[in-house]
Specification:
- The structure holds two protein chains of two kinds.
- Chain A is of the alpha/beta class.
- Chain A contains eleven helices and 14 strands.
- Chain A folds into two domains: about 180 residues, Thiamin diphosphate (ThDP)-binding fold, Pyr/PP domains (Rossmann fold, 3-Layer(aba) Sandwich), CATH 3.40.50; about 130 residues, Rossmann fold (3-Layer(aba) Sandwich).
- Chain A has a seven-stranded mixed beta sheet with strand order 3-2-4-5-7-6-12, sandwiched between helices. A five-stranded mixed beta sheet of chain A has the order 9-11-10-13-14, sandwiched between helices. In chain A, strands 1-8 form a two-stranded antiparallel ribbon.
- Chain B is built from eleven helices and seven strands.
- The chains are: A alpha/beta, B alpha/beta.
- Chains A and B meet through α3 and α4 of A and α5 and α6 of B.
């Protein structure tokens, strides 16, 4: 099987879906001939032309809202935010319009839009270019939220997201764009709402997603040397969440830690902990722990950012607290 | 007038239908028959009717929180609208939306909107969609003077002008945003002047003259259909009622209100049709009687329709 990068997997997914369905169009900042700030749309303008790969002005509310209007009238737009941090500018269009139009209109309309954006820290991009807002948007009924961790997953999930008739927020981690992985040449998709056990283990479960999967797997390899067998559950989609895969793992290992890059308070990790506490309390031998960022904005200086964000070491230390 | 007779007469009927619908809603709401809030269009009938008379059934509109007039003018069924206001299962939105969110996508009505300026990017996207699909559709985007200060207005009109999108931006300037006189919070007198900033035509018309509204919109619609891009049309008008039903009028001088009610769009139009021999008095009365009957049926329909089953509250989230 060939190996391609996460970024190449994104542009392949988009190209295949655009070939398959003429209603799929792309717009955002610099997505055309420039190829996108992270090269995720490289080659698409050349193949599909300026009518299907459109460079927008710096108007996030305007062009995300235009995506909603276009999706409501027969197109399947894949709208890109150059940095996911700027999703806040477009929030009304996502929260009050895209998420709600179908429901408010009694099911008479659908909004098949994908909103893609790069997320995450560890690159000294500082407070306004390092965030990831899955917790905000998982909170809102009517939006799906996806965060793939590998080239295989990102391609398969993006294809599914494009084909989904609902609004999907699709977050790609900046640190993962250059990561390579095996991706089949044949057509395949990965379903939304389905977690993936990336590493099987018997002693403790790490429930995680996006770049934290990488760190969790590295921590697992290190812990294996001490005979601690770690299971890593990659959520892939945080809304809708695959409760069954999480609970099956917890029933097996009896110990669970949620590993999340972003802030702790009122986050996806809080939701996961609540689900496990509600539905698998009797299977737990230890409290549910969480490894997350400290609740401060992402600092700039690498020594500060490193202090605040999760690391392999912090994950290992947390595992030892309940499975050491 | 160069307009075909049936267009002239249907505009009269359209304004009457809005006037009677909104008057009924005013009274029924005051009597406690409807939950929530309503924002009435009384006095502004000529804007919705004139603008919608300039487009075809296959074209689309986006509306506002004060949207009953737009929806009726675009062909909305008053029975299903009234039922929606009552929160009944037979409403356009099965009771899920209410007054501020009435939508009928099959009629090209992309929804009333509870967010001021919320419909403007959606209309712009619909225009981009029409252009990319080469459907020949035109989108009429209704919004108020308050909304013209939202960032979404600026961003949307810039996008539409940059890409020559087939959107007609119809600003209903009724002088107030809730309780704030808008010229206290806006430097320019004429919102139409903002068109210059986007390189598009911007014109101000008497929003209480349905023919003037129609003619301005028709020209803009024709431009849009020829791929010559968007237009900004400011319709000067006034709402009889306060922002929402039940709000006391503490912020408008009574003589101002009275003067605008005097300048209302329907009475003078009716007189003009009769004077010009387009309708007789009897014909005009009959049209109105027919509208009244339609509204009687709509109210009966709404009152007698079933409420939605409570558990349907969990339906229609996902496609």
């Amino acid at each position: 099987m060939r190996t391609i990068t996460y970024a190449e997997a994104v542009s392949e997914a988009l190209a295949e879906e655009m070939r398959r369905d003429p209603d799929v169009v792309i717009w955002g900042l610099d997505v055309g001939p420039y190829g996108g700030a992270f090269a995720a749309t490289k080659g698409l303008a050349e193949e599909f032309g300026p009518e299907r790969v459109i460079d927008m002005p710096i108007s996030e509310a305007g062009y995300v809202g235009a995506g909603v209007g276009a999706a409501a009238t027969g197109l399947r737009p894949v709208v890109e935010l150059q940095f996911s941090d700027w999703i806040t500018i477009a929030s009304d269009m996502l929260v009050n319009q895209a998420a709600k139009m179908r429901y408010m209109f009694g099911g008479e309309i659908s909004v098949p839009m994908v909103l893609r954006a790069p997320v995450g820290g560890y690159v000294s991009a500082a407070a306004q270019h390092s965030q990831s807002f899955e917790s905000f948007f998982a909170f809102v009924p009517g939006l799906k939220v996806v965060l793939p961790s590998t080239p295989y997953d990102v391609k398969g999930l993006l294809k599914s997201a494009v084909r989904d008739d609902n609004p999907v927020i699709f977050f790609e981690h900046k640190h993962l764009y250059e990561v390579s992985g095996q991706v089949p040449e044949e057509e395949y998709t990965v379903p939304l709402g389905q977690a993936d056990v990336k590493r099987e283990g018997a002693d403790v479960t790490l429930v995680t997603y996006s770049f934290m999967v990488t760190k969790s797997l590295a921590a697992a390899e290190e812990l294996a040397k001490d005979g601690i067998d770690v299971e890593v559950v990659d959520l892939r989609t945080v809304d809708p969440i695959d409760e069954e895969t999480i609970l099956t793992s917890v029933r097996k290992t009896h110990r669970v830690i949620v590993v999340q890059e972003v802030w702790r308070k009122c986050s996806v990790s809080s939701e996961i902990a609540a689900i496990i506490a509600e539905k698998a309390l009797d299977y737990l031998d230890q409290p549910i722990l969480r490894v997350t960022a400290d609740d401060v904005p992402n600092p700039f200086s690498p020594v500060l950012e490193e202090y605040v964000l999760p690391s392999e070491e912090k994950i290992i230390e947390c595992v030892r607290r309940i499975a050491g | 007038m160069d307009l075909p007779r049936d267009k002239i007469v249907s505009m009269y009927e359209g304004m009457l239908k809005i006037r009677h619908f909104e008057s009924r809603v005013r009274d029924l709401f005051a009597a406690g028959e409807m939950p929530g809030f309503v924002h009435l269009y009384l006095g502004q009938e000529a804007v919705a009717v004139g603008a919608c008379a300039a487009i075809e059934a296959g074209d689309c509109i986006t509306s506002t929180h004060r949207g009953h007039g737009h929806i009726i003018a675009k062909g909305g069924d008053v029975k299903r609208m009234m039922a929606e206001l009552y929160g009944k299962a037979t409403g356009y939105n099965k009771g899920k939306g209410g007054s501020m969110h009435i939508a009928a996508p099959s009629l090209g009505i992309l929804g009333a909107n509870g967010i001021v300026g919320g419909g403007i990017p959606i209309a712009t996207g619909a225009g981009l969609s029409a252009k990319l699909r080469q459907s020949g559709q035109v989108i009429v985007c209704f919004f108020g003077d308050g909304a013209s200060n939202q960032g979404t207005f600026h961003e949307s009109v810039n996008i539409a002008s940059a890409f020559d999108l087939p959107v007609v931006y119809v600003c209903e300037n009724n002088l107030y945003g809730v309780g704030t006189r808008q010229t206290n919070v806006r430097k320019v007198e004429d919102i139409a002047d903002r068109g210059v900033g986007y390189g598009i035509p911007g014109l101000a018309v008497d929003g209480n003259d349905v023919i003037a509204v129609y003619e301005a919109c028709k020209e803009a619609v024709d431009r849009a259909r020829e791929s010559s891009g968007p237009t900004l049309i400011e319709c000067k008008t006034y709402r009889w009622q306060t922002h929402f039903e039940g709000e006391p009028d503490t912020y408008r001088p009574p003589e101002e209100v009275a003067a605008w009610v005097q300048r209302e769009p329907i009475g003078p139009y009716r007189r003009m049709l009769i004077d010009q021999g387009i309708l007789t008095e009897a014909e005009a009365d009959e049209i109105e009687a027919h509208v009244v009957e339609e509204l009687d049926q709509a109210v009966d329909f709404a009152r007698n329709s079933p409420l939605p089953a409570p558990e349907t509250a969990l339906e229609d989230l996902w496609a």
